[in-house]
Amino acid sequence: MARQSADTRNRIIAAAWELFYENGYDDTTVDEIVERSGTSKGSFYHYFPGKDALLGSLSALFDEKYRSLSETIDPRMNSFDKLMLLNRELFFMIENTVSLDLLTQMLSTQLTTSSERHLMDRNRYYFKFLRRICAEGQERGELRDDIPITEIIRSYALEERALMYDWCICGGSYSLTQYASVQLPRYLGYLKK
To answer: pTM score, two decimals?
Structure first.
């Protein structure tokens, strides 16, 4: 039952972000989200008090991307390369399915909110998946073991957020995916053993 509940919530989130990208946030209605998700208005309001609450749900969409990647990623791949693959896939998704305005709005809500900071929620799948990759990297001797895993994860997440913020501040004037493929290895090179 819990998985069905999560599936319903995730369908609503995915439908909402598709519509936000296609029509813009202001021109998307709750009725359209309900129709696209194949759910009901009751289900929508069970999970979200209103359309505004969906702005904070982008992290859930990101986590779904990480879940799907975790099922297909080659377990023999070097841990550093896994981190780079995760970033490349996420940023490609952002560039192609999340409008710059919506990403900017979501990131700004994380700066001004006094309640939940969804991106920083350590219970997210994102952080659990990163922990698994980094622990494996240290066990295999691929990542430094003199740096605590929590610090490695914190550095990686910090660099991803910094790249997203910069891309938004620059108005999306460059390819986020391509820029990250150059910058992220420079930032995280100190993690390699």
So the answer is: 0.80
